[in-house]
Amino acid sequence: MTTRIFVSRDAGAVAVGADEVARALTQAAAKKGASIEIVRTGSRGLYWLEPMVEVATSKGRVAFGPVTEADAVSVLDAMLADGSHALRLGVAEEIPWLKRQTRLTFARCGVVDPRSVEDYKAHGGYKGLARALTLGTAGILDDVTKSGLRGRGGAGFPTGIKWKTVADASADQKYVVCNADEGDSGTFADRMIMEGDPFVLIEGMTIAAICVGATRGYIYIRSEYPHAIEAMNAAIAAAKRAGYLGAKVAGSAHAFELEVRVGAGAYVCGEETAMLDSLEGKRGMVRAKPPLPALKGLFGKPSVVNNVLSFSAVPFILDRGGQAYADFGMGRSRGTMPIQLAGNIKHAGLFEVAFGVTLGELVDDIGGGTRSGRPVRAVQVGGPLGAYFPRALFDTPFDYEAFAAKDGLIGHGGIVVFDDTVDMAKQARFAMEFCAIESCGKCTPCRVGSTRGVEVIDRIIANTNRAANTTLLQDLCNTMKFGSLCALGGFTPYPVMSALTHFPEDFGAPPRLQAAE
Amino acid sequence: MTGTYEPWDAQRATEIIAEYRSVEGPTVVILHALQHVFGYVPEPAIPMIASALNLSRAEVHGVFTFYHDFRKEPAGRHVLKLCRAEACQSAGGNALAARAEAKLGVSIGNTTADERVTLEPVYCLGLCATAPSAMLDGRVVGRLDEARLDALVAEAQR
Ligand SMILES: Cc1cc2nc3c(=O)[nH]c(=O)nc-3n(C[C@H](O)[C@H](O)[C@H](O)COP(=O)(O)O)c2cc1C
Ligand code: SF4
Ligand code: FES
């Protein structure tokens, strides 16, 4: 009998030796004369346990991790004999960290073979599309609107309203564009989906295309993601062969062609209008809105532009109905959010959960505190444009409005943890520096203000006219916040001001009392 | 690896441009294709692209210089990219970056005098759960510590 073994091909697992482990397992099996089949899956997202290796048993898939090349022989023995092993984690689905999650979007990630349409279908794939084809435009819009889904790229705009605008527009050509630029530090959920369950993204984009009447689509993937690019290209080719893309999608009258385009190392190209310019072959300059991309988007045509996670939530919504998704969450934040725990955190990885979980639960309880073992001092939520939160704000629930009320944002759901060795003045300086490096240059507050900001923070750090320069920094942040065309210049003040407000002692000022514990 | 790139050849470049000129929004696609084959985009390629696409030379030059990825000169034999973004900073990336600079004798953004290694910054590789991260000639490496970094630098110097 052939034993089926699963090893992740996710870049995060490969970066810590998954390829070497897969090779060592194959060699160990050959030496023993054991018949094994290695399936390369995506990652389940328990990155501190990667490379995590699973074996199919009558009880389910039993996991081992983190496995090194040197462990291959003994792990294989334990797998074949169903024996004990120091790295044995038990049935994967029963691992508490995974069991606590609500995996709607990530249900299949780490489970299926991301190169196989058949495997995708065997795990419930393409059911949403089948129902969408019977519903038509109005029915699809109804479900997406009812689900309460808001854009997962950062801005949180209701997806149903966006799609309706494109559906209502009349044009000879419409486009569906997926924003897979994922430039925020601390985020990797888009990458995981593309590498681990690419068909869910293809299905979501196909449903969008049918809904609005688009026949062409693009996925704009950043060049820093070679594994995701390869995975998406392979999946698109497989979907075409299986009749799920092309002239007659799933045998229907709808045509939909999909293509991957690769970015070229510019953070601002994650901003949707800059991305459209880049797709058109131009410099990635931010466009003034209006016109909305929904009406004048790619090549001036009506276009749906959504994040990877927004599209990938749609197959579940169409399969189970909008209400099933809306049943999760709090307030106006419905459904689940794939939260990414990153940086100096013990249990780093992907945690998909209904909105409403608090920042403290995520960092201390689920994340297990820092990897360094030192106290958590600050966490940055929402990427390089997101605010730094002190422990005093750890009761903030993960919800668009609750974070906005604390002068922060949830963005794309990344949480980066820092221990007590962090220098918050340096982090504020980095935020300004990053803005200066990545500014598209269109508006003065962003282009000039960020460079000025670095200089002013340098003076504060050097204790030159500290009080006056701190006031100057605040004024500068205000100018950037209100005078910038897009959120790169407009939101860089979030990390800067939050560092200054919550950690004044790092800027040479007396500490805030409420920030102390 | 730069060693596997073809030397600049205008005829070959013309063929590459012709292959992609009719895709929608071709400029960035063509620049990527040229860099993929030659390892960089030499000056003479710019007017060639411009005339094939009926654009001005300034327009193509503007696109070429806008993006961090495109090189106007060949890189070193190996390209080592170190992630300099926040998640990697929180996990000790700053000290490792300084260590790599000291070992290679160049600051980030430069190529060693023997043209073996180009050391570059990258702002997130999406490996933030196994930080600090790096990429050597397209191969990803996570959970860097001093020993793993030293091995990576030594490999790049070979
Ligand atoms: C500087 C900047 C960078 C951005 N980067 C991304 C990104 O990498 N991915 C993304 O989906 N949205 C990004 N956005 C947000 C997009 O502009 C846009 O809101 C999003 O693609 C819409 O899709 P959604 O409604 O599904 O979120 C960025 C915005 C700004 C201002
Ligand atoms: S805020 Fe900055 S990145 Fe955004 S449009 Fe203005 S200059 Fe460009
Ligand atoms: S911040 Fe370094 S990999 Fe994301």
Task: Characterise this structure.
- The complex is a heterodimer of chains A (517) and B (158).
- Chain A is of the alpha/beta class and 517 residues long.
- Chain A has 4 domains: 3-95, Glutaredoxin (3-Layer(aba) Sandwich), CATH 3.40.30; 117-326, NADH-ubiquinone oxidoreductase 51kDa subunit (Rossmann fold), CATH 3.40.50; 329-419, Ubiquitin-like (UB roll), CATH 3.10.20; 424-507, de novo design (two linked rop proteins) (Up-down Bundle).
- Chain A has helices at residues 11-14, 18-32, 72-81, 96-99, 117-122, 127-147, 159-168, 189-196, 198-212, 226-241, 272-279, 308-320, 322-326, 359-366, 400-405, 424-438, 444-461, 466-483, 487-491, 493-502, and strands at residues 3-8, 36-41, 53-57, 60-64, 88-91, 175-180, 216-221, 257-262, 303-307, 329-330, 333-334, 336-343, 349-354, 376-381, 388-390, 414-419.
- In chain A, strand 12 (336-343) and strand 13 form a beta hairpin.
- In chain B, helix 1 packs antiparallel against helix 2 (26-38) and helix 3 packs across helix 4 (57-66).
- In chain B, 46% of the residues lie in helices and 13% in strands.
- Chain B is elongated, with a radius of gyration of 18 Å.
- With 158 residues, chain B is an alpha+beta fold.
- The chains are: A alpha/beta (517), B alpha+beta (158).
- Chains A and B meet through helix 1, helix 10, strand 12, strand 16 and helix 16 of A and helix 2, helix 4 and helix 5 of B.
- The complex binds flavin mononucleotide, iron/sulfur cluster and FE2/S2 (inorganic) cluster.
- Iron/sulfur cluster is lined by residues 268, 286, 439-443, 446-447, 484-486, 488-489 of chain A.
